[in-house]
């Protein structure tokens, strides 16, 4: 090398700051500590949010059992040896090792998107809600995938109780107290169960609303719910929910929710002000704007080493990747897109990427499914772990222990545990902070010009005709 030549560091671009993105970058900055310190490697993480959301805790955040800030992990604190860019990757040309992205400053600068070159690519953008062309869904549906949606839903449910308590219109009251959840997977069942618990508790503070006045409806297109925990535990979950007066509709679809009326495929019409959509997810849209191979469901085709099939220096894992499950009985079966695989895949991906940079052999990702746990509200749950089936309090306790162990950082673990302890000692909080969604409303009202005086009234408030 000629004297004085400066070598550019090898840039690792991590797209996404969720499970896979955060855990991969976290392990990479540990594995490549010496290379980063010496300027030989640079890790750049591009993510829309400066935090990672631990989604299994969203139902508890929505119900008020956990503070929203404790179910997210601040990326700048955790990824202290990475360069963090808050923005969106719009497209990737892997043949040229270049990504086109926008940041929070892009509009202010007026210069348009920027191109970022890289040497190694880690694709971990996760997934987005899978919606269907249901009339009225875009206008009235509520998602449940982010912490903002969880808190918004909590405020919305409590606001409906306030509306029902104060209205003199019986039809409006019934619509406000009817809550429709579409999707019988983890997100839908756990969100409904936790919020039903919270709303039933909150009714004790309303003089004219009783728990039996609330109507909760779970709509599922398949013939069962919670397929991950098995048929027996799924049937138990249905019995548990129906025992709490939850109307579980199997083999049923939402056909429309226009004009605040949920129309089901069985002909039922439900006037409601709350339709929560949790009917599955799909890969992030950015995957369609790449030159990388995808499978029939739009996910990036990967090898068992978590490299992108046929694309050197590209890696992927999590919801966005079709990774072959080497432990499956049928060859070619992909790993399920869940957190259990995502966290473990991130570890192997980071180790393989570091090994690749050092010229060492790669290892295959292999993890047999250990089981599943699901909460059905406070002290209630179902679990199917290592062949053992649990229900009620033991399953709920296992749900909490498992997810506490998977929560990143000791700081967040301690805060979550402290909140659980305090919630067991004190009464549940049932305050709606819906005004947080419009923080400038009060100031705009104060800054607005005063309304004109009534017609015929002078500045002093006296009738001009009589003066």
TrEMBL record:
Region (Disordered) location: 442-467
Residue span(s) of domain FAD/NAD(P)-binding: 11-345
Pfam family of the protein (one): Pyr_redox_2
EC number: 1.6.5.-
Key words, A-Z: FAD, Flavoprotein, NAD, Oxidoreductase
GO molecular function: oxidoreductase activity
Protein name: NAD(P)/FAD-dependent oxidoreductase
Organism: Streptomyces omiyaensis
